[in-house]
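Appendix C: a fully annotated inverse folding record. The material below is reproduced so that readers can follow the format used throughout the book. The structure is listed first as C-alpha cells, followed by the designed sequence.
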C-alpha cells in the first residue's frame, strides 16, 4: 500500500512538472513554429536561409565550449543545494568562468576576422555571447527551483523573437540580418528580466568568495560533458554541412526549413527531459527505480511515436501553404526525419540521465565519440551518392547504434524492461516510414494515416487505457 502511494505521489509530481514545462516549451514552440512561414516568405532565397541555419548550428555547436557546459552544472549542483552560502559559491564560480571564456572567444573572433572576411562573423559571435548568458541564467533559475520564472522566460523570449522578426525581417526588409538581431536582442532582454526577478548577479555573484573546492567538483562534472555535447552536435548538425558540400546551398535551405518542423517532436522531448531530469535525480536511489524508470521509458517512446505519426501526416497535408513555393520539396522528408529524431531523443533525454544522476559524466564520452565517427564516415560515403537521403540514413544508423550502446551501458545505473507495446510501436514506425515515402494521392496517405492511428490506439499501454477509461467514467 505504501509503495502504491509512493508511486502515485511521484507520478503526480511528474505530471505536475510536465504540465508546467509543457506550458513554457509548447508556448514557445508554437510561436517559433509560426515564424517559419514568415522567414520562408520574406527570405525568398533558400541559400540565404541556409546560411542563417548554418550560423545558428555553429552557435549551438560552440555553446558547450563557450559555457564549458556550466549550463548543465548550474542546474545539477544548485538543485541539490539548500544553503545560500553554497549557492553563492556555485553561481560565482560559474559566472567567473563564463565571462573569462567569452573574453577569450571574443579575442579569437577578432583575430579570425583579420584573415576571414565573413559577413556574419560578428553577428554569429553576438548570438553565441547572448545565448551563453541566456542559457546559463535560465538553468540557474531552474536550479534555484524557480520553474515558474524559467517557463515565463521561455514564453517571453519567443514573443520577443516573433515581434522583432516581424519588425526587422518583414517591415525593415533586413533579410537574414534581421533574424540574427531578433534572436540576439531577445536573449539579452531575457537576461535583464532574470536579473530583475532573481537578482542572480547582484545576490549570488561575489568576487571575493572562495569557490575553489566547489569549482573542482563542477569542473569534474562539466568538462566530460563538453566532448560529449560537441560529438553529439557533430551527429545532429553535421547534416547541414554535408548537404551544402555534396548537394547545394538551395537544398540545404529546403532541408533546414523542413527540419524546423521536427521542433514539434523536439518540444515534447524537451519537456520530458526537463521533467525527467528532476524526477530521475529524486528517484535514483529508490528501491523500485528499475520498475519506475521502465514504465516511464515505455510511456515516453509510445508518446513520441504517436506524436510522430500525427505530426508528419498533418504536415504533409498542409505543407503547401506552410512554406514558400521554393521550399515544397522538404515535405518528402518529414516522417523519416521525425523517426531519426525519436531515436536520438531516447538516448539524449532518457538514457543520458543515468550518467547525470550518478555524476559519472565521463562514461558518456566513448559512445558519443564512436557515434560521431560513424556519422561522419557514413555521410562521406553515402551523401555524395544519395544526397539528402544519404544524410538521413547516416543519422538513422548513428542514433540506432547510440541507442543500443546506451541501453546496454546504463544498466549499471538502472535496468530498463522494454514492453511488447514499445516493440510494436517501433515496427509500426518502420512501416510508416516506408509508406510515407510513396508518391501517391493525399487520399491514399490519409487512409494509411487512419490505419496507423487505429493501430496506435490498439497497442497503447494498458495503464494509459485504464487512465482514459477512468477519466471518461468520472465525467459520466
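Designed amino acids, in order:
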Amino acid at each position: 500500500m505504501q509503495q502504491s502511494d509512493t508511486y502515485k505521489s511521484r507520478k503526480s509530481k511528474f505530471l505536475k512538472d510536465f504540465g508546467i514545462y509543457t506550458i513554457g516549451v509548447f508556448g514557445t514552440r508554437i510561436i517559433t513554429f509560426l515564424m517559419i512561414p514568415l522567414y520562408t516568405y520574406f527570405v525568398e532565397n533558400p541559400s540565404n536561409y541556409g546560411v542563417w541555419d548554418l550560423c545558428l548550428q555553429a552557435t549551438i555547436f560552440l555553446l558547450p565550449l563557450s559555457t564549458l557546459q556550466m549550463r548543465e552544472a548550474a542546474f545539477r549542483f544548485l538543485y541539490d543545494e539548500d544553503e545560500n552560502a553554497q549557492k553563492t559559491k556555485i553561481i560565482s564560480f560559474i559566472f567567473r568562468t563564463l565571462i573569462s571564456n567569452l573574453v577569450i572567444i571574443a579575442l579569437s573572433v577578432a583575430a579570425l576576422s583579420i584573415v576571414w572576411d565573413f559577413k556574419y562573423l560578428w553577428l554569429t559571435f553576438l548570438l553565441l555571447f547572448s545565448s551563453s548568458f541566456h542559457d546559463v541564467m535560465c538553468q540557474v533559475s531552474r536550479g534555484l527551483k524557480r520553474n515558474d520564472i524559467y517557463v515565463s522566460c521561455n514564453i517571453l523570449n519567443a514573443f520577443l523573437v516573433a515581434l522583432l522578426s516581424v519588425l526587422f525581417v518583414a517591415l525593415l526588409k533586413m533579410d537574414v540580418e534581421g533574424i540574427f538581431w531578433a534572436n540576439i536582442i531577445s536573449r539579452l532582454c531575457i537576461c535583464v528580466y532574470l536579473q530583475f526577478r532573481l537578482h542572480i548577479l547582484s545576490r549570488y555573484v561575489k568576487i571575493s568568495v572562495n569557490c575553489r573546492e566547489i569549482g573542482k567538483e563542477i569542473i569534474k562534472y562539466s568538462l566530460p560533458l563538453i566532448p560529449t555535447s560537441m560529438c553529439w552536435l557533430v551527429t545532429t548538425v553535421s547534416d547541414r554541412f554535408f548537404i551544402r558540400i555534396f548537394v547545394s546551398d538551395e537544398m540545404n535551405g529546403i532541408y533546414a526549413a523542413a527540419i524546423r518542423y521536427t521542433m514539434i517532436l523536439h518540444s515534447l522531448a524537451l519537456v520530458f527531459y526537463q521533467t525527467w531530469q528532476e524526477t530521475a535525480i529524486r528517484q535514483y536511489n529508490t528501491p523500485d527505480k528499475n520498475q519506475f524508470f521502465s514504465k516511464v521509458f515505455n510511456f515516453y517512446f509510445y508518446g513520441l511515436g504517436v506524436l510522430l505519426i500525427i505530426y508528419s501526416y498533418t504536415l504533409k497535408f498542409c505543407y503547401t501553404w506552410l512554406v514558400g513555393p521554393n521550399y515544397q520539396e522538404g515535405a518528402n522528408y518529414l516522417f523519416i526525419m521525425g523517426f531519426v529524431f525519436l531515436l536520438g531523443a531516447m538516448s539524449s533525454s532518457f538514457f543520458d540521465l543515468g550518467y547525470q544522476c550518478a555524476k559519472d559524466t565521463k562514461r558518456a564520452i566513448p559512445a558519443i565519440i564512436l557515434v560521431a565517427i560513424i556519422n561522419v564516415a557514413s555521410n562521406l560515403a553515402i551523401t555524395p551518392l544519395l544526397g539528402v537521403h544519404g544524410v538521413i540514413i547516416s543519422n538513422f544508423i548513428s542514433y540506432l547504434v547510440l541507442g543500443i550502446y546506451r541501453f546496454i551501458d546504463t544498466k549499471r545505473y538502472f535496468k530498463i524492461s522494454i514492453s511488447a507495446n514499445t516493440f510494436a510501436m517501433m515496427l509500426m514506425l518502420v512501416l510508416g516510414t516506408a509508406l510515407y515515402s510513396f508518391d501517391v494521392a493525399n487520399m491514399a496517405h490519409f487512409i494509411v494515416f487512419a490505419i496507423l492511428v487505429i493501430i496506435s490506439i490498439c497497442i497503447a499501454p494498458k495503464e494509459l487505457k485504464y487512465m482514459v477509461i477512468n477519466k471518461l467514467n468520472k465525467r459520466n
